[in-house]
């Protein structure tokens, strides 16, 4: 993916090349095209992931592509200069910014302003200024008198200027709330509401926050229209409120019996079971229904109406076990989901983080269980390397895997794992064993159908759909 392929204006690309940026970060990849289309955005993504460019590049692109000219045929800046040179009585004309970025702190505002200067260095008409608490008023009046296109402001000081008529938001096209969660933590909610209320309904709104849960999520929904929600889980996200476990299984029958057993856990309220394929989602949901669970499938082959009905039933608690594929379940936010099961491991380690994030919502605790064949232990290691956390192995009495591994796992570190990283003790002593990577498969074709008592799904080789794990 390149910046060119995101459709950005040539002057923006030139500035990025000079800044030494070679390719967009993931949040930029997702946010920029949507923002160029004019969509509102709700974005959560970790610090340092490049959020400033994610909102500033599309804005600069827009301003570079369609210069706004006022009724006199001149840009507001030219008009102001012209009136000055005509010797008109100097009178302060309220600044009419096209874009406003709200930030919680002065430091961040200055950072955003200088990033804007960098990204907009090949656009002569675009000026960005910071309006900050602590800056002398005369200096700010000078800046505002230049009628900058882009204002970057902390909420308190901005309100002062709005109330004294120095800023008029009637021409505002884009509103950005950067680090919205921190602004709320700092008690800016009323100021933000007031500022938002002073901007046109027609604006494009982009909100960035470490989390989109709780209060900040509610505010985000109030001030955006049909937003595109982008959540990029950082590999550093610890998910400390989610208890992660691996259960090794010998074959499909073992996996199915164990899943049944774990779904009967009395601490389970609602669960999502992830499968690799749509067909498996359907088959497993059918089997679970026959076994007496209120289960339903959710995947991309279902019509939108059916998907919405399933999600509604899940929210109302009528569906207790949702059997879903990655794409369909992305972003599901149902607080009563206490358990996530990886019936199949995800194709990519990032998806593991998205999956387990379906539980432990809104500060609650959650459990995330991966049912893993011995031959897949390398894939577990890749996940551990990505999350920088070891996933403890658990064993349920009566459901022990027959195969015990030769390489003891205690004392081993996943690549990149450092002492001090979150690591819980094994819940059963016998469980901390691990098969050697590359050990011959014992659970391949035939295993699923062979052992009785399990689901009679169409699986032949449990990991046949996952050969590309980690291929990116
Ligand atoms: P965030 O707001 O997500 O914390 P920033 O927008 O402040 O992140 O960016 C973090 C750093 O990454 C900055 O130094 C910025 O210049 C740099 N950066 C952003 N996007 C890219 C990119 N596509 N390529 C290289 N560096 C980038
Ligand atoms: Mg930032």
TrEMBL record:
Annotated stretches, region: Disordered: 67-91, 403-472
Name of the protein in question: Superfamily II DNA/RNA helicase
Recorded GO CC terms: cytosol
One GO MF term: hydrolase activity
Chain intervals with Gly residues compositional bias: 445-456
Occurrences of domain DEAD-box RNA helicase Q (ranges): 1-29
Annotated InterPro entries: DEAD/DEAH_box_helicase_dom, DEAD/DEAH_RhlB, DEAD_box_RNA_helicase, Helicase_ATP-bd, Helicase_C-like, P-loop_NTPase, RNA-helicase_DEAD-box_CS, RNA_helicase_DEAD_Q_motif
Domain of life, per lineage: Bacteria
Keywords assigned: ATP-binding, Helicase, Hydrolase, Nucleotide-binding
Keyword Iron: no
Domain Helicase ATP-binding: 32-230
Domain Helicase C-terminal, chain residue ranges per copy: 258-403
Biased composition (Polar residues): 72-84
Membership in a protein family: Belongs to the DEAD box helicase family.
